[in-house]
Amino acid sequence: MDYSEKWGRDTDEAVRLALDDLGLTIDQVEVTVLEEPSRGFFGIGSKLAKVRVEKKKPPKKEEAHKQTRPDLVIPIEEARARDAANREKQAAEGISAEEPRETRREKRPRNGNKKNNRKEHSDRTGSHAKKEVPEVREPIIPTEPEEDLKVMEDHPSINFLKDLIKEMGLEADVTGKMGEEAIYLNIQGKDSGTIIGKRGQTLDAVQYLTSLVVNKDQNKYTRVVVDAENYRAKRERTLEALSYRLANKVVKSRRPVRLEPMNPYERKVIHATLQSHPKVTTRSEGEDPYRRVVIELK
User: Fold this and answer.
1) 251, 297 in Cβ contact below 8 A?
2) Are residues 10 and 34 in the same domain?
3) Global confidence as pTM
């Protein structure tokens, strides 16, 4: 066996178990971290580390520059960093620069009339640009019209969040609005980033706990949405941009791409974004909390 995938409380333990399984030393293998460990919040959302340890192979002369594998895992954190850097270059906020183009821009000929070249470029951008912009759709998180929401001054959910934030030793303000279908709570302040946590895991845990408080001893279930600094809308746009880019990668390489494990909401964003894509399809595999999305050719 040339590789081994192992779980561990941290990456070092997972690597050690894989090396024991292969009977190799660390300098004889290549290590890929498939999943980072996480302690979670109050025990919620905790994750083990998972690594893939593979025996080094001498590269072939013809393929020395190609080191890709069909089971490539794309770290979302890296994608988010690239997305943020690209968005800063745009004049309009919220427009994603990473949405893939169906066709590559043709190379401009070295010789020839420059005026004709400019005309050809104008024709391409004018006739095809609209087709390359993904269709605008409604957000995955359903929200009610702002005019239908009522401001909540005193509510168990607000009091619970304030007490929770205080017990965490953080400083943030909590506001809330109530609609017919859900309660919307917003956290703002200098420590809001800590409340959001890595990939929103802490925010999801806070939302889960708040939902338990709101729906305790209630006959009718009330949906609770906890947000901080408009993180959920930003996260949704990031996932959409990531979906288009990876779909383009799948079409180009003709190999499936497996994303790292996501919560049900984030998986739903990926599925909904690519459901009408003409060349790729999506599916989920694995069991929660390690269930992930796979993007592959139709």
Assistant:
1) yes
2) yes
3) 0.52
